Amino acid sequence: MEIVIVGAGPIGCYTAQLLKKYGIKVRVIEEHKEVGRPVKCAGIVGRQVFEDTLIGISKSSVINQINGAFFFYKEDNFRIEREGVAYVIDREKFDKELSKGLNVECGRRLLEIEKRGKGYWLKTSSGDIFADIVIGADGAKSRVRKFMMSELGMLKENKEDDLKDGIKDGIKYYNGWQYRIRVEENFVPEKFAQVCMSEGIPFFIWTIPESEKIIRVGIISKNGRIKLNHFLAETKIKGEIIDKLAGIIPLGMITKTSDKNIAVVGDAACHIKPLTGGGIYYGLKAAEILVECIKENDLPEYDRRWKRKFGREIRFGLWARKVYEKLNKQETKNIFSLFKENEDLIEQAANFENHSVVFRKAFKRPKIFLGATKILGRNIRKIIS
Hints:
By secondary structure, the chain is α/β, with parallel strands linked by helices. The protein contains twelve helices and 17 strands.
């Protein structure tokens, strides 16, 4: 049996390592010239990435430990502390560590897929490959996903309203930007991230400390580079920009992510937290489920199993994101104030990977429930109707 994984990012490599562990032959192709580059990730992961995987992942890529975060809305702010809640990583090194021992065919780009009997012909920039099973770990604009959706008749005529909202085939794409800056003065506490809420930005602006002298500042938004430059000027962050990165973040819930002999995983399957845009942990856990189904010779079961494990969390995040993006200036301010008034609960309940936990616990407090209902009522009715 010939299994081909398209994409040698962390999820593609982790999937290959699992298959290798179980003695299953696998071939990995990657369009870029080397694993880990170009970097397209903020580079902060929850501690679960290193503590909750079937194959232990080396911490050699860890640059800094995060013990909490400051949350800002204009001049107002509050802080939560959670020791070791997350790690700042060297993403290139992280990917390369996961690829060790694998024979990754770099510089080999997938061009087209053709169904051949029970298998597939993969047309690539370096010749054709036959595969009994194809796994798409090829990112936000996955060619494997597009082929699979077409084969399953899932590519639909997009509604005008969907296209107006930037949604195509059930997926909404966001643009992320980040600068690495060598600062002239210590701008943030070395072990704390910063999250800045602002109206007109669908996510938030983040500041992640690598060390006392190097920070990462990023945003997910249209015209992100312009807004990021404006933020730097407004906050008077001064220093040398030593690196820039940009990436695409796909959010949605795909109707089907596997069929008899084909599946998608990671960003290709929208295994991403809708409230923050992070996806490594979900992708790793989905890869474990995918390999389990391959071992059982039941690939179609993969879609049902991963959705049962964390599909509800993604659906909740998509709903919460839709509500958040409809908030006006006053509602954004009121929501921030509600968070600040209950920072003790957030500090106790916040979960880096499962965001619904804090909301479920918060809504058990009558005062929070009533306050949130009052603030969000207009938007919730609009979404439900």
